[in-house]
Specification:
- The protein is an all-alpha fold and 200 residues long.
- 74% of the residues lie in helices and 0% in strands.
- It is built from ten helices and no strands.
- The longest helix is centred in the middle third of the chain and has 29 residues.
- It is globular.
């Protein structure tokens, strides 16, 4: 905690912490997932990957990548997605069911694509009219609430529609349905004064 308190005023410390958390969550997590080894209880703690994303987000919020760096990040991100797809396809074929070895949000196969999306969207310059800008702001204000309730909404949808998370119908169109449902719930709750205490 003292390190995190100091980090807000020291970008070099933020970069250092982001790198350390990436090694622990992204690289070490990937290693024990792939090798099937028993993970260290402390190093496999779920606290590291949210901290990693927080640190990385802070760094890229203030630092611009050069064109070669951005191209390199793009190539690595695509490579991670391809690796995840083929490893998952291979392992799933072996066991006859969907293998979830590389499904972790904190693994390096997810970190690079996530960072690429964040950086690309943040630095995507587009002119919009005031009305569209207000809609985007409204949608953005619901993001935290959507994240907080999406797992619950997914479970309810699975029961109602009798689906499993390895079905193609669930993976593609139901993603949009889940987002729209969560967005509607959060938007309605935020319309009430007390609701804004739940979803700020």
């Amino acid at each position: 905690m003292p390190l995190l308190a100091k980090a807000k005023d020291d970008i070099r410390l933020v970069k250092y912490l982001a790198f350390i958390f990436f090694l622990i969550s992204g690289c070490y997590g990937f290693y024990y997932k792939i090798t099937g080894s028993t993970p260290n209880g402390f190093l496999s703690s779920g606290i590291f990957f949210p901290l990693m994303y927080a640190m990385i987000g802070y760094v890229f919020n203030y630092q611009k990548l050069s064109r070669p760096q951005y191209i390199c990040l793009s190539i690595i991100s695509v490579a991670c997605l391809v690796l995840r797809y083929f490893v998952t396809a291979h392992l799933s074929a072996e066991i006859g069911a969907t293998d979830k070895t590389l499904f972790g949000y904190g693994l390096l196969t997810a970190v690079f694509p996530s960072v690429w999306v964040f950086y690309t969207v943040k630095n995507f310059n587009i002119s919009v009219n005031d009305k569209l800008a207000q809609i985007i702001v409204e949608l953005s204000s619901c993001s935290l609430g959507i994240y907080l309730i999406h797992r619950l909404v997914m479970r309810i949808e699975m029961r109602v529609f009798d689906m499993t998370n390895d079905m193609a119908l669930w993976r593609i169109p139901m993603t949009l349905v889940t987002y729209a449902t969560c967005l509607l719930i959060v938007w309605l709750v935020k319309k009430h004064k007390l609701g804004r205490l739940i979803f700020p």
